[in-house]
Amino acid sequence: MLEIEKINVYYGEIQILSSISLAMEEKEIATLVGSNGAGKSTLLKTISGVVKTKSGRIKFCGEDITAANDYEIVDRGLVRVPEGRQLFPSMSVLENLELGALRSGAKSKRDESFKTVFELFPILKDRKKQLAGTLSGGEQQMLAISRGLMALPRLLLLDEPSLGLAPLIVNYVFDTIKSINTSGTTIFLVEQNVYASLAIALKGWVLEKGKIIMTGKGKDLLNDDRIKTAYLGI
Question: Hey, where are the domains in the chain?
């Protein structure tokens, strides 16, 4: 479904990503883990067309999207839920969700999508008239994920969904991510929570200083002594 071939990404003259290559299949969960500042969010922004590569190629469902605009990439069904949620705080929960359903083909299925996200996160149904900016951190993350789902993604990019959340909410969010995947949505997860993300991922990559230094099955990486020492404090 997604194939990245030796991309190099710069901010000005500073190289952020160096010769990144990876691939993932349809209907799987894959995760990219690494420390803060490793370049994880930059990779997701590059895949979704917000940041452009200096070289290399990105293919989605067999199509080259390297030079495509971000809105064109969303229209193909590749949707990013950004780090920090980036909701519209002065708009209601319902209005934020409606904005998620603007892509081609999603608007006509909006009512069905509302039903889906309200089943995943029942509290959002109770809060649908409430301003997004007045929600708790956990509720805002639920809304951000739901807004992404309203676009009917084929591939959902999740950028740090557990950031700043209480442990119980983190568990709930990760259980929901598994449910979303079980329903047929492919998920590329970027996380600092190495344990939680590798535990649910079929495959994973470790990014350090803009380079992939390890790759393998999620559970194999989780049991790797280098991962335990560097990220899990074991």
Answer: 2-192+214-231
